[in-house]
Amino acid sequence: MQNNAKYFTFLFSHSSRSRIQIRRVQVSKKILQNGLLSIAFIIGLSTFATGIYGVFSNSDLSIAGIAESASPVSTQFVSSVSSQPLSIDYSRPAASSHLALNSGGPALSETEIEDAETESLLKVIESTADPANLPSIWAHLGKINNEFGFRRNPFGGRSYEFHSGMDIDGERGDVVVAPGNGTVIEAGWKGGYGNMIEIDHGNGLTTRYGHLSKVDVAVGDTVTRGQLVGYVGSTGRSTGPHLHYELRINDKPINPRRFLPPEPTELRKAG
After folding, report:
1. Pair 217, 197: CB distance under 8 Å
2. What's the first-to-final CA gap in the chain, in angstroms?
3. Domain spans of the chain, in order of start
4. Which of 11, 58, 73, 244 lies 20 to 30 Å from 112 when distance is taken between CA atoms?
5. pTM
6. What angle do CA 234, 238, 242 make, to 5 degrees?
């Protein structure tokens, strides 16, 4: 092979019995170089494509293997969940004065425990407290318009609300007296109560008197059973003149009839 600036010259010899023939072939350097680059590119591309195909083939096999191994577990889990029986308690709770109309939900035993504890505490107070301190006379005598517990909203509508006391009918200016000895701990305006008095009778017992037209005592005053403390009115959240009377134990409202005698027969008939 001979080499010059532009061509490669190849000499090919061929001999026979009678003679020797020499053939010269010239190839452009540029064409030869381009051809070699093309061949190298084709070989590289083929190698790359083969590698990519292998990667994806292995991925498919791996995914299929994972799916096959997970399938029994998934089937077992679904089967386990499906086989678990559902247990829902649809039983109706026993009748109670604390139940609200058209309401529901899981029954809670805390209320019954609280009521039992409260009743035990009240019995202890009845047997150990000074009888003069117990709120055992009516602060005002009149027809009972609303008892303690749930009632229809007095301002209209179909809603029900919890009434924390007893509404005793009366006329504006009727006398309100203390039902037992105690100390005045509140006297004045208190939101929906309007003009209100609260008396502490000791042992956690307190009484409240709401919607008064006038308050006749002050905080800190000591009062005795039957003493004038205020006058019936219609202040605060009220639809007309009456006395809102509450009894509380440790600030929890309870039925205000707990220490009271029955109202006179004529008042019960009027109700």
Report:
1. yes
2. 136
3. 2-72, 129-270
4. 244
5. 0.56
6. 50
CATH topology (fold) of 129-270: Glucose Permease (Domain IIA) (2.70.70)
Q: Position of tokens 């229809």? A: 152
Structure tokens at 47: 């190698």
173, 207 in Cβ contact below 8 A? no
Neighbouring residues of 150: CB distance < 8 A, sequence distance ≥ 6: 98, 99, 100, 101, 160, 161, 162, 163
Residue type, 252: K
pLDDT tens-digit profile, the chain (271 residues): 545 556 656 555 555 554 545 566 565 666 666 666 667 767 766 666 565 555 455 544 444 454 455 444 444 434 444 444 444 443 444 444 443 322 233 333 445 556 888 899 999 999 999 999 999 999 999 998 888 876 666 556 666 667 788 899 999 999 999 999 999 999 999 998 999 999 999 999 999 999 999 999 999 999 999 999 999 999 998 889 999 999 999 999 999 999 999 988 776 655 5
